[in-house]
Amino acid sequence: MASAEAAALSSSSSLETDSAPVPETVGTAAAAAVAAAARMGPGARVSKAALATKLLSLSGVFAVHKPKGPTSAELLNRLKEKLLAEAGMPSAELTKRKRQTLKIGHGGTLDSAARGVLVIGIGRGTKMLTSMLSGSKRYIAIGELGKATDTLDSTGKVTEEKPYDQITQEDIEGILQKFTGNIMQVPPLYSALKKDGQRLSTLMKRGEVVEAKPARPVTVYSLSLQKFQPPFFTLDVECGGGFYIRSLVSDIGKELSSCANVLELTRTKQGPFTLDEHALPEDKWTIDDIAQSLEHCSSLLPAELALKKPKPEDSQEHGLSCEYITLNETKGEDGEIKTC
C-alpha cells in the first residue's frame, strides 16, 4: 500500500524505534577505540571490537532509500541486522555488556508498495523523530483512473470500475485547487492508524469490520499535475503530517465522476532530507557510511533538536512505539520485546 502518506504511512505519521538507550558517554577505552579506528586507512583491518564501539557511539538522524517490497519496520530490522553483523554482534549471539545497547528507529512510515526517503534516528537521534514528522513531505504519485480498490492502491482488490474516457488534462488541473491548502481528509481504512491498540490495516486483513475514521484537517502546500496519459496521471504533492496520498488520488477520481487508485508512490523529500542527495541505498548501509551521513546531515537540523525529547502527548498523537534491544538479549519465542 502506498501510504505516503505522510504519517502513517508515517501513517499517521508514525514513528517506530527498534532499539535501546545508548550510554550518555562511551568510556575512555571506547573513545580510544573509536579514535584508533578513525586513524586506520581504508586498507587497514579494523577489529570487530572497534566497529562495535563505533556503532554504539553513533547518534543523530540520517535517511535511507526504501525500495518497494518491504514494510518500513522490515527495512528497519534489515538495517539493524546489517549493522550488528558488521560489528560482529549478530542478534543471536549478543554481547554480555548490558550497559551498551543499540537504539535505532524510523519516523514517517512508508507502505510496502511505496519507495523513497525514510528518516532514521540512531542513538539519541531517536528522540528527534517525532519532530521530523511535523515537517513537510513531498511525493511523486502515479494514479490510475477508472479503478477503485479496497486499499486505494494497486495492491488491493478492485471494488469498482468506472469510465474515464471523458476526462481531460484540463479537467484534472481544474480541480486540484480544491485539494490545496488546509482541507479535510478521511484516512484510508488500510492504514497504520490504530483502533484499540491495533492497526486498522491488520484488522482489515483479518476480515473484521472497521469503521472509517472521521475526516480530519490536513495541509497540502502544493499540488500539480506533471503528466497525463489516460488512464494514468502523475502528481507532485507537498504536504504536511497525517496526509494520505492514497486518499487524495481516490478523492480526485470521485471529483471527476470516476474513480482512481495509486499505481506508484515515491517520497522524494521528508523535512530537509531529499531522495537524491541524502537517502543511503542499501549498499551504503555500513557503519562508516552512516557515520559520514550523520555528519553531513547534522547541518540540516536545528541544534536544539538534538537533545529534545518528545512529549508524551506527541508520542501518542504520532503513534510512537519503541523497541529496546539490549546487546545481550534476544526476542522471546513469542516475539515479545520491551516497548515504551
TrEMBL record:
Organism of derivation: Myotis lucifugus (Little brown bat)
Listed InterPro entries: PsdUridine_synth_cat_dom_sf (IPR020103), PsdUridine_synth_N (IPR002501), tRNA_psdUridine_synth_TruB (IPR014780)
Keyword terms of this UniProt record: Acetylation, Cytoplasm, Isomerase, mRNA processing, Nucleus, tRNA processing
EC top class, as a word: isomerase
Pseudouridine synthase II N-terminal domain: residues covered: 96-245
GO cellular component, one term: cytosol
Main location: cytoplasm
Subcellular location: Cytoplasm, Cytosol; Nucleus
EC number: 5.4.99.25
An annotated GO BP: mRNA processing
Protein name, UniProt field: Pseudouridylate synthase TRUB1
UniProt GO molecular function: pre-miRNA binding; tRNA pseudouridine(55) synthase activity
Reactions that this protein is recorded to catalyse: uridine(55) in tRNA = pseudouridine(55) in tRNA; a uridine in tRNA = a pseudouridine in tRNA; a uridine in mRNA = a pseudouridine in mRNA
Role summary: Pseudouridine synthase that catalyzes pseudouridylation of mRNAs and tRNAs. Mediates pseudouridylation of mRNAs with the consensus sequence 5'-GUUCNANNC-3', harboring a stem-loop structure. Constitutes the major pseudouridine synthase acting on mRNAs. Also catalyzes pseudouridylation of some tRNAs, including synthesis of pseudouridine(55) from uracil-55, in the psi GC loop of a subset of tRNAs. Promotes the processing of pri-let-7 microRNAs (pri-miRNAs) independently of its RNA pseudouridylate synthase activity.
Similarity remark: Belongs to the pseudouridine synthase TruB family.
